[in-house]
C-alpha cells in the first residue's frame, strides 16, 4: 500500500529534478525506492542503489544516473500504480536471484543450491507474465 503523504509531496514537485536528500527534506517517507545498498572495502564505504521507476497515483518518480529523481505526471490509478510497482519489485527479485545463481555456480560450484534458486526464479517469471496478462 502506498503512502498517501508521499503522493501529496510529489504532486507539489511535478517536473522537478531532485536529489534523494531533497526528497527527504520535503518530507518524503518511502524507502521502497531503495533496491540495494552495496558495501565496499569491508563496509567502510557504501552506495545506495535506487529502483529506476516508482509509480504513484498520477505520478512517476524516475531515477537518473542513480542520483537525481525526476517527478512527472502519469494517467495511472492507485491500483494500476501498485500493480506496476509490484511487477518492478518482482523483476528486481528475479535479477537478484539470477545474480546469485551465477555466483553459486561459477564461484562456489553449488549446483544444488543454484537449482533451488532457479526454481524460485522461474516461478517469479511466471507470476510476472500472469500479472501482465491480467492487467491487459
**Strand-pairing-aware structural class:** alpha+beta
The amount of helix comes to 40-55%
* Helix run count: 4
Which band does the percent of strand residues land in? Answer: 15-25%
Residue stretches low in confidence (pLDDT < 50, at least 5 long) are: none
Using the CA coordinates, give the radius of gyration: 17 Å
Instruction: Tell me the strand order in the biggest sheet.
Output: 1-6-5-4
Mind summarizing the main beta sheet?
4 strands, antiparallel
End-to-end Cα distance: 21 Å
Multimerization state: single chain
- Find the count of extended strands (DSSP E, 2+ residues): 6
Report the principal-axis shape.
flat
Protein described:
This protein has 136 residues and is of the alpha+beta class. The chain contains four helices and six strands; from the N terminus they run H-E-H-E-E-E-E-E-H-H. It has helices at 4-11, 20-25, 78-108, 111-135; strands at residues 17-19, 34-40, 45-50, 53-56, 59-64, 68-73. It has a four-stranded antiparallel β-sheet with strand order 1-6-5-4. Strands 2-3 form a two-stranded antiparallel ribbon. The chain is flat and about 50 Å long. The chain starts with a helix and ends with a helix. The mean pLDDT is 90.
Key phrases:
four-stranded antiparallel sheet; 136 residues; two-stranded antiparallel sheet; alpha+beta
Topology at a glance:
Blueprint: H1 4-11, E1 17-19, H2 20-25, E2 34-40, E3 45-50, E4 53-56, E5 59-64, E6 68-73, H3 78-108, H4 111-135
Antiparallel strand pairs: 1-6, 2-3, 4-5, 5-6
Helix pairs in contact: 3-4
Amino acid at each position: 500500500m502506498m503512502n498517501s503523504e508521499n503522493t501529496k509531496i510529489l504532486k507539489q514537485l511535478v517536473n522537478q529534478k531532485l536529489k534523494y536528500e531533497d526528497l527527504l527534506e520535503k518530507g518524503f517517507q518511502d524507502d521502497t525506492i531503495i533496491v540495494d545498498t552495496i558495501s565496499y572495502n569491508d563496509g567502510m564505504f557504501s552506495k545506495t542503489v535506487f529502483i529506476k521507476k516508482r509509480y504513484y497515483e498520477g505520478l512517476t518518480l524516475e531515477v537518473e544516473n542513480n542520483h537525481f529523481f525526476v517527478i512527472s505526471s502519469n494517467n495511472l490509478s492507485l491500483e494500476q500504480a501498485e500493480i506496476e510497482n509490484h511487477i518492478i519489485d518482482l523483476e528486481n527479485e528475479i535479477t537478484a536471484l539470477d545474480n546469485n545463481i551465477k555466483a553459486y555456480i561459477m564461484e562456489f560450484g553449488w549446483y544444488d543450491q543454484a537449482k533451488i534458486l532457479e526454481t524460485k526464479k522461474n516461478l517469479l517469471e511466471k507470476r510476472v507474465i500472469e500479472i501482465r496478462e491480467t492487467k491487459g
